[in-house]
Amino acid sequence: MSSQLLSLGAWYFLPNLVTGWVQTVYYRTTVRAGDPYPQPGSQRHERHRRNIFILVILTYLLYTIYEVDWELQREGDFYTHLGVVLDADEKRINSRFRRLTILYHPDKLQNPSPEQLAASSNYYVHLKNARDTLVDPAKRYAYERFGPSMLEWKNCITKLDYITVGLKQLVPYYLLSALTLTVMSFMRYNEYGRYWQFFSIAALLIFEAHTISRPTFPLPLRLLNPLTPLLNHAPYLPYQAIALARRIALSVFIAVSQIAPQLRRAAPVADTQQSLSGLYALANELDGDAARLLRLETVPFLDDEELEARLKRQTKAWLVQNEIRNDKGVDQAIRAVLARRMEAEMEGSGTTE
């Protein structure tokens, strides 16, 4: 439980920290020596940081899924502890338990220390609980769907008894989840993917209700479990699939809440391009209006070719002169020439005197 809390808490400080490290390494390996790095706040720097941040979030999402799967496999289950397959019958389970009794029964130890005797006794009790659970059809059904917690349920005899108790524990979990999402939506904390969050909670509830109420394993497990030996992986039990699905849903919620704002920040680029396109269209429209006004102003000269040619020459000369007058270089050159002339005239007048 503590490792899960630590993993969930890491969502809120680890991605930014790792993103900074990765971006620094990225610049050191891709930017040529002597070239400046993109400055923080620049468009290029922010684009790189956004892409790296999204990559870090997706990587950590995959890691959290692997982590919970590894924890489930490390804890094991009654089938792996007894060393039997999922479809083992009562005879096979009892036969395997007798072999394990020879190996792990406390009476088989020779001159054990108190610690060894206690550890052996606890492990043998665990194996006996596993055998007793799997040879009882109702308990076996409940264990596969609810996990080891069903051993603590009292006054449960039939499958219906276990399903009833399981549903009573299931409803508060999803009511609290839905209430939490509602409060977060009201406080505008989960503005991104709000619809999909509620949809995922509903889909997860349907999957779990279907899993604990059906006499067979759910279809995803029936398709996946035959492939697990190829991956050197133990088959999944329904309660393990439910725990994995819950953790994946929670991790995806957090990942989406962090990735969506980054994707939204990229929207102004598209908005800028759209604005530029609008300005370009407006400029073309104004250019067309100016051309139409010019044609309207030159209507009186259309019938007289001489006047039209004269107007063109004068307009061209005015444009050239206006461009020259407005050019700073030309203006400075004219001022320099005038200054030299004034100096020459002053020197000439002084010599005459």
TrEMBL record:
Residues 77-147 form the J domain. GO terms for cellular component: mitochondrion. The chain crosses the membrane at residues 6-27, 48-66. This is Membrane associated DnaJ chaperone-like protein. Gene3D superfamilies: DnaJ domain. It comes from Microthyrium microscopicum. The keyword Transmembrane applies. Keywords: Membrane, Transmembrane, Transmembrane helix. Pfam families: DnaJ (PF00226). Coiled coil: none annotated. One of its GO terms (biological process) is cristae formation.
